[in-house]
Records
---
Amino acid sequence: MTIAQLIAILLPLLVQYSPQLIADIAALIHGNPQQQGETDAAYIARIGAMIDQNTTKVVGEDAAIQNG
Amino acid sequence: MKLTLFALALAVGLVLTCGVGCRHNVNTANPQVVRAATLLDASNATVTVEDGLTAADKTITQLKAAEPDYYAHVKPLLKRISAVNVIAAQKIQAAKNGDTSADWRSPLLAVAQSVQPSDLTAFGFKNPNSQLLVQSGFATLVGILTQIPAKFGGAQ
């Protein structure tokens, strides 16, 4: 299959499902929005875990900069 | 065909313009969910600051021998930004953990105000190439320091 054929298949799908697809693409690249069907509590818990990881990363990299 | 091109252009535009610290989409008006998403945006900003600091630190380490005066000038600034950034990250963490009195926004804004971005990259370099290396190595840091007030300076 050529790239042109692939695009020809994907573009109509993009149009048909564009709002959700665009949101999903943006989510994959840039963030973690609340998913369809994800409860508020589950989303808050997931976000909380990400913040925990972020804080650990920031503190660890700060130590490297302070001691470097 | 026009609709296809429009959808493609819209998709590319959304993906490209939604950069670091992009507001997260939520399915609800539940204030706790909105708050969690806002805190994650703020937390992501502190990560971007630290990533920028790490890149900047590597750059000045490479230049240390050729530009010792610049290294001596800018290294304390990076340490200062990083220290304030940790405070912001910890305040965000406290807010996430339920401390409703935790003011995370002020520390985050303090990160952006901890230095003048021009102080990081403007210097009388000995080697003309150093300026280019510094501008490249500090791009992420300068960019996020500039974006923070615009993203988090408003009302909560």
---
Amino acid sequence: MTSPSFQSTGCTDFINTQAALSRRGFFKGVMALGGGIVLSTQGVDLALADTLQNGEPGAASGDILVNLNMRGGMDGLLAVPVLGAAGLSSARPTLALADSELLPLDGFFGLHPKLAGFKQLFDAKELSIAHAVGTPFGTRSHFDDQLAIELSAYYSPTTVDGWQSRLLKSTGASAVFSGVGVSQNTPVSLKDAPGGVAFDAFSDVLLKDFKMERGAQLELLQILHNDTGRYWSTVAQTSLGATVELERVAQTPAGTYPDTEVASRFKLLAQLIKSGLPIRTANIDFDGDLDVHVAAGNRDGAMADNFQRLNDAVMAFRADLGDLWKRTTVTTITEFGRRFEENAAAGLDHGWASVMFVMGGSVSGGKVHARWPGIGAGDLVNGDLKVTTDYRSVLAHVMQQRAGVSGSQLAQIFPDFKPEELQLV
Amino acid sequence: MALTQAQAHRFATALTYGPTPAVVDSLQKQGLAKWAAQQLNPKYANAEQVLDDSFLAHQLSVAEVPKHPAFLATKGRVTTELTLATAVRQSYSKRQLFEVLVEHFNDYLHTPLSYDGRVYRVAYDRDVIRKHALGSFPEMLVAATFHPAMMAYLNLDKSTAEHPNENFGRELLELFSVTPSAGYTETDVVNAARLLTGFSWDAKKGVLKINLAKHYFGPVQVLGFQHANAKTTDPDEVLARGKALVRYVALHPATAKAFAFRLVRRLHSDSPDSALVADLAQVYRDTKGNIPKVVLALVNHPKFKSNPPVKVKRPAEFVASTVRALQLTPVKPLTGGNPAKPNAYFGGSGAPALSNIAKQQGHLAMNWPFPNGYPDVALAWTTLSSQVQRWNVAADLAFGRSPKTWNKPDLAAVFPTLNTDASTAKIVAVVNEQLLGGRLPAPKAAAIAERVGQVAPATDSASALKQRTELAVVAVLASPEWMLR
């Protein structure tokens, strides 16, 4: 099993939340005409173009921050094993790799052989790694830990928006497409995001005709969704403009990618980036079997396949973006690592600390950050690698270094949290 | 007290896959309480042949399915069959409230389609979910725990005394019963896993296998449940201990509350009213988890009756309600296919027309990849793609744009009161009344009539009437009011 986009309990009243939201992006002004409808196809285009050109005042400059969710709980000790660790080999008789099989990093850690492209990025200083990183309170629950990460507001139980949403809000980015979820459902991290959209195929977002003139159809849909306090209608205002804009974007040539789900998601994201949409942050889900309770596989099998797929998708994305890779930073995150010891089925149960990869064309990479907790019996916490670096410190560091996010903005994004100073990117 | 058309329409919207004139009429005649009781009577429409016999796995026992030549090499056929049968039932069964509950409990005790135990998924739907949906939730949970589909999915069949696999034990507490609010600890999870070690499925015989050598013996405590769990040579005794634990957590007050919360969220509101949840939790406790009694308590509760529809339909509900509203049928028959021709097993079936729309919107029945079931709040289903797709599907179906897949709707039969001399405003009013119980506000109805009038000639002919009706239907199906249940 792996983790969900949405917690099964404890939902919030989105309708009320939405009632407080002002109208978004290009529909500003249009709707202020006392119910009079002045919208046409051309009107939508012009209004959107206007928003795109002018951008949003106060919006953070810098990289597009891509959050890659390694949902399911990625094992960090197989992705980035510690070298010369007899303890690791004895705890994982079928799963540990010999040091000689690993790709060299900094002399203390090695890299899984299927992550050869990542090794190339590391050497080119386009990738850094944070190890023994994770959530402040490990629950070993996919749902709780994933939700906690996406909300990232541990002492604010009333918080309803996600951390990427607060990144947009705190930096004043509200143009449509500021936040993109490459997924059928809106991820929690982009919940309540100004200018947030979510989809994973163009065919799903291009509007078919209602056997009437296009302007009349858009007007009609506009009137039908002219509600206050109704979440569906509020989002529809955004969707109407977005679908018109996406007709243009869909013409952007796509790059070459491997035939995997995660690669096709990166391909779509690259098209959006290349077409000049004002994306500030994006969210992508890895697609694989990281929740390896049974037969985790090291040289081949589940985890080896996972790493290959991850590696190939990111490398294709980088190639496709060309110069835009220099304006892009991809950060991986997972809800937890796996148990230190393998189980009877040569699998790995839920654990705590794992690794995060940070990569991009302009990062100062080639580093591994780890306050190494050790893997001796006394070092583990309930049999898990201990978290010594909070994942929020890594995200905060990336946002500061790569997107010009200020300390006060970070305080809004991660309430009640003082990030650790890192030297990573 | 007799229900108005609008009231009956609203209850049908909440408790079925979509109001039809027949359902609304039945509700008006019987009243809500009697109608719901009839729907929850296991004998009601029990003999209805919604499924053709060609849905092969549905006719086989849990032991027979994996051995049948049609499924030996192609286990995916079992789950394909299940998704098709489910879509057919949701759109066409008379047992609407039952089907609503079946979907709910398939989400509650979810096992997805793509994993090792999928060959047992039809049996799980039938022998666990459908069998107990009109009975006891604790017994449903017991049946789920030891069913091969669940055992394979959450690795209970791999859990041994030496290496207890916590996957099932954790979800038992977190998702299926008390939820984390009960304050259980990691030790509780481990102990739950321990007491449930040594169970697996004997595929040859098609029975539960209890391996005493792999069972953990020794005292366990899970919340307030304690068992000495002393060494025994009696496998039935070990099974009884496992069942006792499952029943204990299923009858825990925290489970009553979680059960009530999820039911209210399914049938009433994304943000369940806490007093309503407390009332239903009490009924759950009083009736030891009797599902129909809790459901009846909900539909007869004043807080349920007073609310307008506020929940965003999930894609399968959008599909079924649209199909029901326009009395749509696929071109091909609603059969399961021909098992004698394995390569074309579902080739002759029209059922994929139904399931494919939901699938495209990320809601193929039972295909959620995680153990917590499909999300049940508006946020999850309100996206750019879900909105544009629903507008597109509304147009495709009403205009009959997929003639090879869907029969064109017979709008004259769907709206029999409309005559060729009807004004456009009248047409919109009739569509609004029948599809939405009149909930579309007047300014929106007027805007629809205005645009339909601009496009279609108001001439006094059958073809003009059809054109105007078609356009009005598309607009109503594209409205936010149609997206709520």
